[in-house]
Amino acid sequence: MARTEHVIAVDVGGTDTKAALVAGTPGGVRAVERRRRPTARHEDGDATAEAVVEQVAALADELRAATGREAAALGVVVPGIVDEAGGTGVYSANLGWRDYPFARRLAERTGLPTAFGHDVRAGGLAELRAGAARGLRSAVIMPIGTGIAAALVHDGRVLDAPGEIGHVDVGHGEPCGCGQRGCVEARASSAAIARRYAARAGHEVRGAAEVAALVRAGDPDALTVWHEAVDALARGILQVAALLGPEAVVLGGGLAMAGPLLTDPLRTRLDELITFQRRPELRLAALGDEAGCLGAALLAIDTLEER
Amino acid sequence: MARTEHVIAVDVGGTDTKAALVAGTPGGVRAVERRRRPTARHEDGDATAEAVVEQVAALADELRAATGREAAALGVVVPGIVDEAGGTGVYSANLGWRDYPFARRLAERTGLPTAFGHDVRAGGLAELRAGAARGLRSAVIMPIGTGIAAALVHDGRVLDAPGEIGHVDVGHGEPCGCGQRGCVEARASSAAIARRYAARAGHEVRGAAEVAALVRAGDPDALTVWHEAVDALARGILQVAALLGPEAVVLGGGLAMAGPLLTDPLRTRLDELITFQRRPELRLAALGDEAGCLGAALLAIDTLEER
């Protein structure tokens, strides 16, 4: 990019929607002004999609008014199954839409050149260009939160592929919400860790962060649940290593806040299990929960550059 | 390609080496003259690599003499771990070399512009450009023989990735030659099918083709072993479907000669196991054991086009 461009970037989440007016410079991207709202929802998935379009337009107006800046483009990312080339939200289990033409509707509603993408892949793009995966040719960028998914980077690009590492069968046999058994996500997502600890210990916890604190305190139930989560993650990572041979795995999302409490035993478990596969380096994500929004901004900027 | 070019293509195998003088036309590739030899071998892996280089040069001379044609380039593919960009054979378990600079040595020895690649990925390239995967944007091209590997096609290109679908853990727990347990290959390779049938039935068979004949005849041991192979293949394919979402899986190698005896139960098993994944179409490879050689020719032709 020859000069600074401003774009509106929106990361539509299952719970909250994050928006920012982002400055794209030759040196990178930087959020100038941010907003966060509960995602608009209706009973009907298509009505939810319509409401999301309205919410994006309102956030764009608000960010422009607050900064006094015009925006050259809009970038929006959503969860679920996304057809990036076609500009449609194919399916969101959580938000309910099916085959909704987001790119076209957003462009009509805002009058801005619009880029549309997938939240996890966009977050991976941000980590690749401006975060923990910078300079890598191949990587798996893996946010771990309520669910687990991955952006697959190969030959310096984020593949337009499902990356559903959370739903790889690693053999533990427990059922998953997706209908399969043995999924990584059924043991290693933040939600699974909290749920499995509660079932074992007989009392609720606020989330995986509380389980992490109990691991540090030596609580035996927490240690078991944590160890089983680490084992599932290691086995899932090995499957990707056999198929794609990434240089590094970048762990993000809420669970990565545990830092070395997660990466140290995970590295040990990978060392125990690995045979012929390329040994991926383990890294922690650098951009936190802003990755999706910055990725949406990068998609918007790429759209401008292609013109 | 504007006009017909002739190239020498060589597929170095663990047992046999196949060579051809190939005509590349605007319409595709066609072998004009073929040779097949036992692969040159020595105790020492580097000596084997040197002997392979000599064998390739001798085959090139022979093919040129037999056809009276000059060759514009050379394409050579080898098994094992291959660094395509660096032009080296990183490791072959079977042939023993480590970090051997094939591309440079072959170019020096033959004086021809030389393309160097991986046998399975080159075979996948041939199926993609001129075989069963023609026109697909994404596919898994999976030869099943003594071992099982895959060429991963994404966005119309063969990824420079390990593609070791044979060494994905699908949970059956049996040991594999690679040091892991539960690998697809330990139940579903031609070698595993023959070995497991012999262990169960108490008598040797000549290979998986004989087991396939016994399946057709209703032999219960053969049916069990075949069913377990199909289950392992289905579970391996599902892992790739979750990660990469290919449009089709193209089955090749010796085992694919079984045709619908393989694809019909595999399709049924995939239907039983699949939940959210994209359902890949199952196809049989079109180019048989010539795929690697034609892929080597395509790599050589691509080298000429880049000039």
Automatic annotation (TrEMBL), chains A, B:
<protein>
    <submittedName>
        <fullName>Glucokinase</fullName>
    </submittedName>
</protein>
<dbReference type="Pfam" id="PF00480">
    <property type="entry name" value="ROK"/>
</dbReference>
<comment type="similarity">
    <text>Belongs to the ROK (NagC/XylR) family.</text>
</comment>
<dbReference type="InterPro" id="IPR043129">
    <property type="entry name" value="ATPase_NBD"/>
</dbReference>
<dbReference type="InterPro" id="IPR000600">
    <property type="entry name" value="ROK"/>
</dbReference>
